[in-house]
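Note to self: keep these together.
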Amino acid sequence: MTTPLYLDKAVPAAYAAAAELARQAGAAAEAAGLDRILVELVNLRVSQLNGCAFCLDLHHRRAVRAGESERRLALLPAWSETSLFTAPERAALALAESVTTLPGADDRRRTEDECRAVLGDGAFAAVAWVALTMNAFNRISMTSHHPVT
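Structure:
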């Protein structure tokens, strides 16, 4: 295989725009009252679904720094099978999974309605933007073959 082409270095203006989008999504999450742990759980779950090692490593460290427990991080892939996550966290994770996997229209609408009822409009929109942005960064890192060192 040839040397990876890091998209962030090849087109820095596009990467800067993606980074600004992530900053705006984070600001929306903060404005909606979402704590850092919930945001990192969303980032991790999206990265798990996409299989992005670089982003998993980065956001695992950020979640731990924010105060998340190793137990909940270990159980994140099975979050819906435990009672360890709060109702807002569960809604955020369900929405993140829906945004990432794009199920059929009926399932997607049902999930969106349920999550919106729990989160409210502001938090729903913020979580959706965090998940959308994380999906973009997963693809940037995976296409660039960013290493985990």
